[in-house]
Amino acid sequence: MIKVSPPGYLMERHTRIRAAVKDEKLPALLITNYTDVSYATGFEGDDSWAIVAPDRIYLISDFRYVEQVGVECPWVTLVVRKHSLDEEVATILKKRKWDRLGVQSESLTLRQKQALEKAIKPSHTRLKPTADLISKLRDIKDSHELGLTESAIHIAQEGFLAMRKQLRPGMTENEIAGLLEYEMRRRGASNSAFDSIVCAGANGSLPHYRPADVPITSNMALLCDWGARYKGYRSDLTRMLFMGKVPAKIREIYKIVLEAQQAAIAAIAPGVAAKQVDKVARDIISRAGYKKNFGHGLGHGVGRDIHEGMRLAAKSTGVLVPGVLVTVEPGIYLPGIGGVRIEDDVLVTHDGCRVLSTLPRDMDSAQLM
Fold this sequence. Notes:
- By secondary structure, the protein is α+β, with helices and mostly antiparallel strands.
- It has 2 domains: about 10-135, Creatinase/prolidase N-terminal domain (Creatine Amidinohydrolase, Chain A, domain 1, 3-Layer(aba) Sandwich), CATH 3.40.350; about 145-365, Creatinase/methionine aminopeptidase superfamily (Creatine Amidinohydrolase, Alpha-Beta Complex).
- Helix content is about 35%, strand content about 20%.
- The protein contains 10 helices and 19 strands.
- It has helices at about 10-25, 35-40, 65-70, 85-95, 110-120, 135-140, 145-165, 175-185, 250-265, 275-285, and strands spanning about 30, 50, 55-60, 75-80, 100-105, 125-130, 190, 195-200, 220-225, 230, 235, 235-245, 300, 310, 325-330, 330-335, 340, 345-350, 350-355.
- The strands form 6 sheets. The protein has a 6-stranded mixed β-sheet. Strands 7-10-11 form a 3-stranded antiparallel β-sheet.
- The protein is elongated, with a radius of gyration of 23 Å.
- The chain starts with 7 loop residues before the first helix and ends in a 14-residue tail after the last strand.
């Protein structure tokens, strides 16, 4: 059998993961988080675990994925399970005779841990919990990840532009959300990055509103928060649309939110505390008298998960470094009136930052009729 080597970007990841495992003084790491399994192997299925060893990566899966593994990651040592996942792990440990095995404390449930300990008991291997070992590595995006993320952003933007051309008074929030997701899939998205948020009028005051059968009417604001998932990577954007005349209060807070977002983006650079970026936006909104109407964090990391890694928030302890990708999404929410949120995906670079999303943010661009 010809040995297949992983592509360069995966080899670099393997080196980083193994170094992190070694720093924990562990011989190997069991990966139970499906997102991390994909990150480490290139396998895009689920219901599978991986073990990172010094000399190979085991992928424990089942018959459903044998062909898929052969296409996506032929470089792994595939274990097609005939028993439970924990029993297959125990079989590997019996052969390898490791005294310890790292496990993901943020992923492995108590029930799974108990079952695994029971299965591996004859091997005398001890489980050692690790915390966010791989998720911390995922904070810094490599060039392969950034390419896929930019494709996810492009698909989301093109889908949005196609959707807005079809908007008419009388369409419902649900209909618009479905149309938006359809247009993204038409352009290559595997699905939406999360359940699309479409808020008509006063519903815009609910940051994580779920679309309903509420029709849009003339002289109404429409808040759209959406993203595309492409080859495992996600985008996350928010824009306002206006059906005719912009309500006076919405016009007022739009200008404030836009100023806050632009100032926060300008503050992003390596070495800057994440909470400082949040403060820049929050201070502008607070000075305008809307402190109580901006209750969520300014942004979050995005990648394979829609919320991952770095948080731009008042209590964040993180510091920005090159390669970190975050959303910047200030908002003002007025119950009974509506809300405004503007969101873009921003990459920290060596000399500042780069906004990866390109949709215009000015109020004129949001005008539909």
